[in-house]
Design a protein that fits this description.
The chain is α+β, with helices and mostly antiparallel strands. 19% of the residues lie in helices and 25% in strands. The termini are far apart.
Length: 156
């Protein structure tokens, strides 16, 4: 169920954003067939062999207390369509948590925007739609806390 809910739901929205059905897409050279689920599955299988000494947890982020670790956070994006189970997400509490764990860990947060005391260290324009006719774009960003232990590594 988890595999289908994440890999086959559009935009990783757990059955909330439509289904990533196989089909043809337009390219500059014509059309090509895409099976998004199979692509995601193959990618996951290829990456899995490289994951060593990694711990995956299914719990509320605030229950995770890392020390001397690399932490990647991908919270629900503020001011966008929310997942069914994250409509009450407390963004202020989340950013306070990131400030706290950044004292002892290397922390990256994927978001569209962050509070002023965070540094944007990377940006990339990305498509926001699976439809070939929808040209919606957004700027994906990675942030670090500017007073965190590793803040100077990625100072822009």
């Amino acid at each position: 169920m988890g595999n289908i809910g994440f890999l086959a739901s559009y935009n990783g929205r757990w059955f909330d954003g439509g289904f990533a059905a196989p089909g043809y897409e337009k390219t500059k050279n014509g059309t090509r067939y895409r099976d998004y689920y199979q692509e995601a599955k193959r990618n996951l299988e290829a990456q899995a062999t490289k994951l060593t000494d990694v711990t995956f947890s299914v719990k509320d982020y605030s229950e995770v207390t890392p020390h001397g670790s690399f932490v990647y956070c991908d919270p629900p994006y503020a001011n966008t369509k929310q997942y069914k189970n994250s409509r009450d997400f407390d963004f202020d509490k989340f950013w306070d948590y990131i400030r706290q764990i950044s004292k002892d860990n290397f922390v990256l947060v994927s978001e569209l925007n962050a509070p002023d005391d965070f540094n944007c260290i990377w940006t990339k324009e990305v498509s926001r739609s699976i439809k070939a006719t929808d040209k919606s774009k957004a700027i994906e960003k990675l942030f670090t806390y500017n007073k965190g232990k590793y803040a100077q590594i990625y100072k822009r």
